[in-house]
């Protein structure tokens, strides 16, 4: 039943899908753990095409599961363009809302809302939001699909809202080590999609795991090696995330 529900969801949205994935972006889950606190570190590096060099990004965050349906986290982010030194890039406030009770329906649904204040004030404020979907296709295979909209406000130059996506398939072999696939991409402005060849779409293998280090303490990790599927995407992207949960 869950597999059929997610398949229907995918078929109705993939045609209009899109996420303007930075090197350190990760796949959001709609699930919220009440009372959980975490220190979160993310890093990623992307090899650009046509000798464009390498772009890298890093972030560290502190998060808290306020209740059974709301998780909030604050990040400090760093970014490095090709040929430049890494430097402070932005503060980000992420809020995740779980809209359905875990496992009650064929698909778990959530909502992500992120507000970013770039160091470069001319960029204004960046708002990213969208629905999050998660389902068990089998007893061991979990699927995620997220549809995201991103727009800059109060920027020196006007910008249009852009449409993006994230997806993930994960085989739950054992808690300490799981594996699967991830993908990110975007199609450009909502009202005027970019040509297919210019859209950045990436996908590739990923690993996941959770290691319990003490009572009520654990380290969760995930990492992916993603390959550009279009000329508008980096040729390769290596990304990782580690969370200390307590």
UniProtKB/TrEMBL annotation:
First and last residue of the signal peptide: 1-21
Source organism, top-level taxon: Bacteria
Classification of source organism: Bacteria, Pseudomonadati, Pseudomonadota, Betaproteobacteria, Burkholderiales
Species whose genome carries this gene: Ramlibacter aquaticus
Keywords on record: Signal
Name used for this protein in its record: Transporter
